[in-house]
Structures are given as structure tokens and as C-alpha cells.
Amino acid sequence: MKKIFILGSTGSIGQNALELIRNNRDKYKVVGLSGYKNIELLKEQIKEFEPSYIYIADKNMADTIIQEFDCLKCVASENNGLADLAKNMDYDIILTAVSGAIGIDATVEAIKRNKIIALANKETMVAAGTCINALLRLHPEAKIIPVDSEHSAIFQSLQGFRKEDVNKIIITASGGTFRGKKTEDLTKITVKEALKHPNWSMGKKITIDSSTLVNKGLEVIEAHELFNVDYDNIEVVVHPQSVVHSMVEYKDGSVIAQMGIPDMKTPILYSFTYPEKEFNTSIGFLDFRKFSNLTFEEPDRETFKGINLAYKAGKIGGTMPAVFNAANEVAVELFLNEKIKFLDIYKIIEEAMNEHETINFTANNTLEEIENNLTTIKFVDKTTRDKVRKKWEK
Ligand code: NDP
Ligand code: MG
Q: Is this structure's pTM higher than 0.85?
């Protein structure tokens, strides 16, 4: 029986994970859950899965909810609540499925305890990948299993081969809702239009990121950090059918791809069962006769600037990826609240990067050095958010 703690259980990834567990109660036990604003759904989940501990942001709500459910031994709230649970509670696997850089501290605490981290929260690797990798070197028993579908595909395509034989990583992209459109077509995009994704049903933030292709940019940095591959050896290719989830090209010219129907339950389940593969009734099988037309094309990097901005941030390194991420997080929030236009998202990221002089990390070998560097990242993250808000929040 594997004990699972789900950060962000009320979100899209969290709900998919619970559906997998619902179908396999003999193999998995939900020990912890976390929500943020969707308290009603969190309560339903507590009733159904009877976890021992949960996180909710609101302190007053925490005090009342613990009275309501007998199963609950601990309800954490406020700023450090997620990290406190990751640090102190009992679990085998932590699924980090909150959205945004808020997931960093809990991941750090889980690594320190040599846990398995099923990592959906890509912003953690983008903003703090260097520190996370340094921490993993101090805790070789801890393991990150990627949940992002592209990274799960790359991770699987690397199994059984030698790292030094890799030529390049090829990340596939659906191309987003606005594939084929030009800058002049994007000036009046509404929130409703941007929230329609052709292939994947996801949370609002990542759906907007997909429409700007910033998501693909975040994934390029995430791949660089997870697989230690140079940016020049990471390629993005648009594949609108989203059946090939990503590929690895080896030196002999052979390409290993991972395919499947576009359903996040597949990579989530693999992160629970790694290195094994398991049948789950909630996952379907690919019928190749229905996918006879798989196409690949170059992304339009001029219109969708998210990819190039990410390569730039990644290659500069240091704190620049954290700035790219923080500026984007605030920009997406402002767009969702109809405070800015769609194309302002690129403007905000570009401006934040231009105004930031990257801080390179000091040696990253001891826990103290890593923690100092994490403090620097958090400082840069906060100042970037404050600056963007001050200028654009009307
Ligand atoms: P959702 O927006 O659907 O869910 C986010 C979850 O995080 C919810 O449980 C939400 O709580 C919680 N949350 C939001 N803000 C905070 C906060 N400040 N403090 C604590 N909890 C918070 O996101 P997704 O499930 O779509 O994505 C989650 C992560 O997984 C992201 O990093 C995303 O990039 C990544 N990912 C998602 C994929 C997908 O298919 N959805 C695919 C690949 C990666 P509440 O709802 O109660 O407010
Ligand atoms: Mg992805």
C-alpha cells in the first residue's frame, strides 16, 4: 500500500490522481490533501478518501474543518503550511500539483526526507531547478518522477539507454488554441477564447500558458533541469494531435518516443508505479487506426514569443528563469482578471527580464549554500511580482 500526499488535490491534476486512486484502493492510500479556494470540493474529497492531514490557506477555516472530520489529525494553513506537512507528515509519494512557484518549499522538504516526488508543478524546476538538483545530489535516495506529459515521455524514452548517447531531446507541443494565428489576430483575444484548449483539459493558468506557448518555454527549462541536457540540444516541434508526448534522439539516429492518448492520468499513474507499469480502468488505449494522420511542424516563434524568451532566460541562467516564471505568473493572473491584454503577457515577461540583472548562484554544494541560493530566488521572485503588479495592476 503506497501512501500518497497530494498537493493541489482540488485542481485538475489532483482530481485526475484521485480518480486513479479511486479505482485502485487496494494499492494506494490517500494520507494528505490540499486545497486553496475550492473548500467545497476539498470537503467532498476528505469525506471520500479520509486523509489524516490537509492544507487549506485560511486559518479560521482550518480551525473549523478539523472539528468536522474525525479522520483529520492535522490541518495546516497559512504560508508555510504545505512545506510543514511535507516536512513532518507520513507519506511515501508526494504529488506536487499546486500551480506556481508556491510548490518549491514542499518539494525541498520532501527531498530532504528522501521521498519520491511526483512532480507536476513545473514552476518549481523552472524557478529553482539548480537548487533542487543540488539538493538531490545531497539526497541521492530522493527521486523526482516527472508528471508533466512531455517530461514523463522523455523520462520513459531514456530508460535503458546511456545518457551520453543522447543526441537531443524533442519536446512536442500541441501548438495551443491559436495555432496558425498571427500577432495582428491576437490583439483582441478574450479570456474565454484563451481558455479553450484543443486537446487537454487543465487548470486555468496552464491553459493560458499553452495558448501563449509560454508553457512550452517553461517545459524547455524544466527539461534542461530534469535531464541535464544543453539548451542547444533541446528542440520544440508542434504536433497538433498530442499523441507523441515527446521523444529522445540518440547518436545513432534512432528516436525513441512515448505515445498514448492525451490523458494526464497516464503520466500520473507512472509516477506512482515507476519503474513498473500498471493497468488502471480509468485509462484508455490508443487506437492507431483513428490516429492515421500524425503531423509535425516548426513552431511560430515570432508570433508566440514564449519559447524564445524561455531559451533566453534559461541560457542566461542564475535567477533569470525565476524572473521569467514570476513575471509570467502575475501576467497570467492579470490577464485572467481582464486587467491586461493577451499580448501584454509577452511584454511583461520581456520587460521584467530586461530590467533584471541575473544573480548567479554561489557554490551549491552544502545545505547552507543551497538554502542561501533558495533565499535569493525567493527574493527575486517576490520583487519581480511586486514590480509587475505595481506597473500593470490598475
Ligand atoms: P489547477 O489550477 O487546476 O490546480 C491548482 C491546485 O493548486 C488547486 O488545488 C488549487 O486549489 C491549488 N492552489 C492554487 N494556488 C494555491 C496557493 N497559493 N496555495 C496553495 N494551493 C494553491 O492546476 P493544474 O492541476 O492544471 O496544474 C497543477 C500543476 O501541474 C501546475 O504547475 C501545472 O503547470 C502542472 N501541470 C498540469 C497539467 C494539467 O494537465 N493540468 C499538465 C502538466 C503539468 P483550489 O483549486 O482549491 O483553489
Ligand atoms: Mg506538458
A: yes
Ligand 1: which atom is nearest the Cα of residue 14?
A: 25
Q: Where are the alpha helices (DSSP H) in 213-264?
A: 214-227
Q: Rounded CA gap, 344 and 355, in Å?
A: 16
Q: What is the pLDDT of residues 50-94, one digit of tens each?
A: 999 999 999 899 989 999 999 999 999 988 999 999 999 999 999
Residue whose CB lies within 8 A of the most ligand 1 atoms, among 15, 36, 39, 226, for a mutation test: 36
Nearest ligand for residue 17 CA: 1
In angstroms, the CA 380 to CA 374 distance is 10
CA angle 154–158–163, rounded 5-degree value: 120
Is residue 236 classed as helix, strand or coil in its secondary structure?
Answer: strand
Burial class (CB in 10 A: 0-12, 13-18, 19+), 350: middle
Q: Which ligand is nearest to the CA of 151?
A: 2
What's the pLDDT at 371? Answer: 96
**C-alpha 67 – ligand 2 centre gap (Å):** 39
- Please state, in angstroms and rounded to a whole number, the distance separating the CA atoms of residues 98 and 253: 38
Whether residue 206 has its Cβ less than 6 Å from ligand 1: yes
Q: Would you say 1 and 13 are in contact if contact means Cβ atoms under 8 Å apart?
A: no
Strand partners, 97: none
Pocket test for ligand 1, best of 95, 202, 209, 261 (most atoms within 8 A of CB): 202
Q: Where are the alpha helices (DSSP H) in the chain?
A: 12-22, 39-49, 59-68, 81-88, 104-112, 122-138, 149-158, 191-194, 204-212, 214-227, 265-273, 306-316, 320-336, 344-355, 367-392
Q: What is the pLDDT of residue 385?
A: 98
